[in-house]
Design goal:
123 residues; mainly alpha
Length: 123
């Protein structure tokens, strides 16, 4: 779980991280103000299955495009990360995010159970 960019709205990320942990998932939370490069590097180093981001700043298109590009540049072979993003994302941006490699978009009102189900079904 990561907070990319200059977004300091951390509560949603912490709630999701705790909810996923409570569902039995191992969660690595990288904290606030992470660059796309730091996020992808941490994912590679920790050998995660999912990169989850929480973006409240409105920079979701820019940040997720860069994260997706870095994954394509730095990850080779059979390794694939499930890439998800959550936050107050306008519905019109969801197809754009999915077109750039985001696997799922969760709104600020999504249920933890739905996130868990999606991750379990796709990893």
């Amino acid at each position: 779980m990561a907070k990319p960019g200059l977004d300091s709205h951390e509560m949603g990320a912490v709630i999701v991280a705790k909810g996923l942990r409570d569902a039995g998932m191992e969660v690595v939370y990288t904290g606030l103000f992470q660059s796309p490069g730091q996020i992808v590097s941490a994912a590679i180093q920790e050998d995660v299955d999912v990169i989850g981001t929480s973006i409240y700043s409105g920079a979701h298109l820019i940040l997720m495009r860069k994260i997706s590009e870095l994954i394509k540049e730095r990850v080779s072979g059979d390794k694939k990360f499930l890439l998800i993003v959550g936050g107050p994302i306008p519905p019109a941006d969801i197809p754009k995010l999915k077109g750039m490699g985001v696997d799922e978009v969760f709104s600020s009102r999504s249920k933890i159970e739905d996130m868990v189900k999606f991750i379990e079904e796709h990893t």
